Amino acid sequence: MNIPEELKFTNDHEWIKIDGDEATVGITDFAQKELGDIVFVEVETEGEELEKEETFGTIEAVKTVSDMFMPVGGKVIEFNEELEAAPELINQDPYGKGWIIKIKISNPDEINDLLDAIQYKEIVEG
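Above: the chain's sequence. Below: its structure in C-alpha cell form.
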C-alpha cells in the first residue's frame, strides 16, 4: 500500500498536499481499494468556503457511495474535471492524476491536527 511521506492524512482516508496557503486533496490508496471500482465523483462545492470535516463531495463505487470530508477548512477553488469522464483515475493514481479538489486554506493551524504517514499507516494496518 502506498502512503507518501510528504502528505498529511485524515482518519476518514483523505490526503492533503500543502503548497503554501493552497492544497490538493484526494482519497488515499487504502480508501480507493476499500471502495473498489469508482464510477462517479460529485463535487458541487466549488467556490464555497467549508469548515474542517464538512462534506465537500461524494464518491460512488460499484457497491457504495461515500462522503468526502475537508481535511482542513478552506475554499474549494478547483475540481479535477478529468474525473467526470474518467473517475477510475482515482483507482489508478490516487495521489497523482486522481486528485479531487484544490482548496485555499483558511486556518493553517488545522494542519497540525492531521496525521503524518506513520500515524496514518498505523490506522490502516491496525
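The CA atoms of residues 12 and 80 lie 20 Å apart.
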